Amino acid sequence: MFLPLIISVIVGYLLGSLPFGYLVARSKGVNIFEVGSKNPGATNVRRVLGPGPGNLVFALDALKGAVASGWALLGHTAFSLDPESFGLPSMARIEGTYWTQLGVAGLISALVGHSFSCFTKFRGGKGVATSVGGLVILMPVAIVIAAITWFTVFFSSRYVSLASIASAIALVVAAGLLKLPSLLLGLAVAVGTFVILRHITNIKRLLNGTENKFVRKNSQPNS
Predict the structure, then answer these.
(1) How far apart are the C-alpha atoms of 34 and 145, rounded to whole Å?
(2) Where does residue 13 rank: exposed (0-12), middle (13-18), buried (19+ CB within 10 A)?
(3) With the CA atoms of 36, 40, 42 and 43 taken in that order, what torsion angle do they form, in degrees rounded to the nearest 10?
(4) What is the pTM of this model?
(5) Spacing of C-alpha 43 from chain mean position
C-alpha cells in the first residue's frame, strides 16, 4: 500500500511541475519570468498576453490538479468490483478511503510542483488554478462556494490576489460547514493556507495600497 502512495506523490509533483505558463508565453516570444509580475501563473500571462493565452494557461494548470487527484478515484471505480485485485483491504476499497488518500497526496504534490517546478529552477505560480482543478474532483460543492466568493470579490474590487485569498478562506469555511471527512477538511485547510502564504507579498501590497488592480491588457502597462 505504500508504493502507490509514493507513485502518487512523484507523479503529482511532476505533473504540477509542468510549466504551462512559461511554455505558452515562450511560444509567443515572451519570457514570462521577465515581464509583468514575473509570475508564470495564468493571471500574469493574461495580463501580459491577453485573455486567450491566459485562459489556456488556467485550464492547463487546473488540468494538472484534476489529473493528479482524479486518477485515484478512477482507480477506485475501475477496481471496486474486485476488492482484492491489488491486495487492498475490501473495506478500504468499498469506502474509497485509501483512494481518497492517494488523491489528496497527488494534489498536494502537484501544488508543490506547480509552485517549485524542477523544470524552471524551482520557480512557479501560486497554485490557485491547480488547486481548483484538484478540488473540483475531491470536494466539488466546497470549491463551487469558493469560486462564487472569488468572482464576487474580484468583480467588486478588481484585485485578483484579494479574490484568491478570500476564496481560500471560503474553501475552509465551506468544508467545515459541509462537515466533510477529516481528511478533506485537512486538505482544505492545507490548500487554503498554502494559497494565502503564496500571496504574502500581495497582502503586503494590499495593506500598503500598492497592489495592482486587474485591468485589460490594452489599458495597463506591465508592472
Answers:
(1) 34
(2) buried
(3) -30
(4) 0.82
(5) 13
Q: What is the pLDDT of residue 96?
A: 56
Looking at residue 91, its pLDDT comes to 39
* Total residues found in the chain within this entry: 223
66: amino acid identity, one letter: A
Closest CA to 143 of 104, 118, 173, 98: 173
- The H or E element that residue 113 is part of is helix 97-115
Give whole-number Cα distances, 102 to 9, 72, 113, in Å: 8, 6, 16
CA-CA-CA-CA dihedral for 206, 176, 198, 24, to nearest 10? -110
pLDDT of residue 89: 45
What's 32's DSSP letter? G
Cα torsion 56, 61, 65, 67 to 10°: value is 60
Among 77, 114, 97, 129, which Cα is nearest to 1's?
A: 97
Using DSSP, state whether 146 is helix, strand or coil: helix
DSSP letter for 83, please: T
Across the chain, which has 223 residues, the per-10-residue mean pLDDT values are 84 96 96 94 93 96 95 61 48 58 93 96 93 94 96 95 96 96 94 94 94 66 37
